[in-house]
Design brief:
5 helices; 7-stranded antiparallel beta sheet; 2 domains; Rieske_2Fe-2S_sf; alpha+beta
Length: 304
């Protein structure tokens, strides 16, 4: 961040001897190289070269940055950012009545597409999350995802709808975000045959699945409630939410890591999609269409 607190992004390599600037420190809003003390602004300009005045107009590559809704967005494209780049996706909770109770960053040892498909699938909950949030859930005769213009989808322009019979709205926002709003009949309780809009209390979730490297994802998780604002200030509440998030994720990872191993062996995870796979199918077709120009259901791990 510069002297005014505005975020910037520069290449992690000093223009002098290619030392990683991330090993240095912020000095008055400039990143200082730990090797020889050269300093760079957030736009990449070098403004100080201690012990020498031989070099002028030195800079490192910098990328456009926008900070919004508590997140820092970096534009890595080779061309100039779109003119409307200031008006992109809003990922804040859907109203002032919501209070953010947890913001967690986790590293997950699976490919981000597989994690996305797991988050976009609610039908697995009564079988997988039996010791966490879905403990005691009955198994419905039919689970379906109905595509509608729910409040979350209208807010961000994504593909959204309602999980039936659960009171849960969910939206996929390209390229790697899942938003969900869960209606709670009582604090912490979900009841079938109730729509989220009919509930007085709601839990709002944002999952951002950032590709980190092959077979690894950096997961950003934000959780908000439109009730119990006092709970945010309780002792150890952050540790409580982080522990719960890790428990839920752990229940999923056992299965998703197994899928990943099978996919690397050439097996196809989309052999027989059914009605409740609709949102995951939409995501996968979008993904392969962008990545390969072919909107198929084949996962990237099985494409030559």
């Amino acid at each position: 961040r510069d002297a005014n607190g505005v975020a910037g992004c520069v290449r992690d390599s000093c223009a002098h001897r290619a030392c990683p600037l991330s090993l240095g420190k912020n000095v008055g809003g400039k990143v200082q190289c730990p090797y020889h003390g050269w300093e760079f602004e957030t736009d990449g300009r070098c403004t100080k070269t201690p012990s020498t005045n031989e070099l002028k107009n030195i800079r490192v590559e910098a990328l456009p940055v926008v900070e919004r809704d508590g997140m820092i967005w970096v534009y890595p494209g080779e061309e100039d950012p779109p003119e409307d780049h200031q008006n992109f996706t809003a990922l804040a909770p859907p109203g002032d009545e919501f209070t953010i109770h947890a913001e967690i960053v986790l590293t997950v040892p699976v490919e981000h597409g597989l994690l996305m498909e797991n988050l976009l699938d609610l039908a697995h909950a009564p079988f997988t999350h039996t010791s966490t949030f879905a403990k005691g859930w009955s198994v419905p005769d039919r689970v379906d995802f109905k595509t509608v213009k729910n409040a979350v989808a209208q807010q961000i322009g994504g593909l959204g709808g309602e999980w039936q019979p659960y009171p849960i709205d969910m939206t996929f926002q390209p390229p790697c975000m899942v938003l969900s709003q869960i209606g709670l009949v009582k604090p912490g309780q979900v009841e079938a045959e109730t729509r989220a809009s009919d509930c007085d209390r709601h839990l709002h979730q944002l999952h951002v699945c950032l590709p980190a490297k092959d077979g690894e994802t950096r997961l950003l998780y934000r959780m908000s409630l439109d009730f119990a604002k006092f709970a945010k200030n309780l002792p150890f509440v952050s540790e409580f939410w982080e522990e719960l998030a890790n428990q839920v994720l752990g229940e999923d990872l056992v299965l998703v890591e197994g899928q990943q191993r099978n996919m690397k062996a050439g097996m196809d995870v989309w052999s027989n999609p059914v009605a409740y796979d609709k949102l995951g199918v939409r995501y996968r077709r979008w993904r392969t269409g962008v990545q390969y120009g072919n909107p198929s259901l084949r996962s990237e791990l099985t494409i030559e």
